[in-house]
Amino acid sequence: MHWIYLIIAGLFETIWATTMKLSHGFTKISFTIYTIIGLALSMFFLSIAIKRMPMSLAYPIWTGIGAVGSIIAGVIIFGDKLSPLTWGFVALLLVSIIGIKITSGS
Q1: 3 within 8 A of 105, measured Cβ to Cβ
Q2: 9 with 45: CB under 8 angstroms?
Q3: What is the pTM of this model?
C-alpha cells in the first residue's frame, strides 16, 4: 500500500508543478490555490509512504515520478518540444524508477 501512496504523492507533485506554471508567478489566485493544495497533498502522501519504506528509496522515486509527469504535462499542456535524445533520457528515468521498485524487495 505504501507504493500506492508514493505514486499518488508523485502524481500530486506533477499537479502542483503544473499549476505553479499556470499561476504565472502566483499572480492567478485559482492556480495558486491549486498549487498549494497539490503541494500539501503531495507531502501528505509522501509522509505516509515514507513511514513504511526507506527514505533513500521513497524520495528519489517521488521526485522521479514528479519529473516524468512534469515533462509529459509540459509537452501536452504547454507544447514543450523535446529532442529524441531527451526522450531517451526520460525513458531511462522511467526504467530507473521501475528498477528501483523491482530491486528494492518491498
Answers
A1: no
A2: yes
A3: 0.88
**Grid coordinates representing 17?**
508543478
CB 28 within 8 A of CB 22: yes
Contact predicate 65/13, CB 8 Å: yes
Cα distance between residue 20 and residue 35, in whole Å:
5
Q: What is the pLDDT of residues 60-104, one digit of tens each?
A: 999 999 999 999 999 999 999 999 999 999 999 999 989 988 888
Grid coordinates of 34: 491549486
Q: Each residue of 8-43: pLDDT tens digit? A: 999 999 999 999 999 999 999 999 999 999 999 999
- For residues 83 and 65, what is the distance between their CA atoms, to the nearest angstrom? 20
**Distance in Å from the first CA to the final CA of the chain:** 10
